[in-house]
Amino acid sequence: MGKEHSTGKKNRLPGENQLTAAVLNLKGKQALITGGNSGIGFGIANALATAGATVVIIGRNGRKNELALKTLKGINNSCYALRFDLSRIEKIAEFYKDAEKEYGTFDILVNCAGTTIRKRADRITLREWEKVIGLNLTSTFILTREWAKSLIKKNAAGTCIIILSLMSEVARPTTAAYGASKAALRQLVRSLAVDWAKFNIRVNGISPGYIKTELTEPLYNDPEFSKWVRQRTPLGRWGKPDDIGPVAVFLCSDEASFITGHTIFVDGGFLATI
Ligand code: GCO
Q1: What is the DSSP string of 178-231?
Q2: Which residues in 169-184 are b (16+ Cβ under 10 Å) and which e?
Q3: Is 1 a residue whose pLDDT tops 50?
Q4: Is it the case that residue 93 has pLDDT exceeding 60?
Q5: Which of 107, 82, 144, 110 is nearest to 26 (CA)?
Q6: Fold topology of 26-212+241-269
Q7: Which pLDDT score is estimated for 219?
Q8: Are 162 and 205 in contact, with CB atoms under 8 Å apart?
Q9: Partner residues linked to 79 by β-bridges
Q10: What residue's CA is closest to ligand 1, atom 10?
Q11: How far is it, in rounded angstroms, from Cα 165 to Cα 169?
């Protein structure tokens, strides 16, 4: 470019010779994505497949899996779907073993499956609490533990993303169980990152703002709430799954190899303002 860059050797910064241009690509990597048949999970599956990764999605609805797979195969023919209900926590270890037997090592794990039961805190039953905490928090931990155990045994590197929420940080009425699970997941990102860094396993969070998905459909369809989101979000709109996918590609890429234990907020500025 300019003169400064074309000057002689003696003006170079230390280490400048080693600089390489960052080109994000996930060729040769295989990713496992929970909740990958719709919403944010599908957006991430799309982005990872576009970046060249082999993608295996996990979803409990066979029809939705097939639909998602049709699109994914159009991007990269080596994409697959596994039908499994992650709320069956005691079956996760066996499920993961089988998945690995069939597809081999997963370099990338994206935990996106999640649920919510919107109710005022004093009306939440133990069963409802356990359902939300079980799927969002416990199943994420168990699956990620199995994934890491296998990588550690094989002496292989890996990178994991956990999908968090605005409710990892702040609350709004009716989100007690969901928020507790998402705040715990934010800390889990840090704990897992610290435990597994020496094995070259990175763990990061992505915290989406209000994104238009199945989970937020009732909120999106409520004109008042929908308007509130647009007004409350500095960038003035609802997010879309496509806003999240590229961030996942970056965090999973070798270009992010010095990032672990962190969370990127993709929220249109929501948490930056009062
Ligand atoms: C709610 C929930 C979610 C949010 C999302 C925000 O507001 O009821 O928290 O549905 O959409 O997690 O990041």
Answers
A1: HHHHHHHHHHHHHHHHHHHGGGTEEEEEEEE-SB-STTTHHHHTSHHHHHHHHH
A2: beeeebbbbbbbbbbb
A3: no
A4: yes
A5: 107
A6: Rossmann fold (3.40.50)
A7: 96
A8: yes
A9: 55
A10: 216
A11: 8
Residue from 120, 135, 174, 215 whose mutation best tests the ligand 1 pocket (most atoms within 8 A of CB): 215
Q: pLDDT per residue over 128-175, tens digit each?
A: 999 999 999 999 999 999 999 999 999 999 999 999 999 999 999 999
pTM of the model: 0.92
Query: Which band of pLDDT confidence, cut at 50, 70 and 90, is reported for residue 13?
Result: low
Render pLDDT for 221-254 as a digit per residue (tens, 0 to 9).
999 999 999 999 999 999 999 999 999 999 999 9
- Who contacts 272 (Cβ-Cβ below 8 Å, separation ≥6)? 234
Q: Whose CA is nearest to atom 9 of ligand 1?
A: 167
In whole angstroms, what is the distance from residue 205 CA to residue 264 CA? 6
- Structure tokens given for 212: 């238009």
Q: Where are the alpha helices (DSSP H) in the chain?
A: 3-6, 39-50, 62-75, 92-103, 126-133, 139-154, 176-196, 217-220, 223-232, 241-252
Distance of CA 215 from the midpoint of ligand 1 (Å):
8
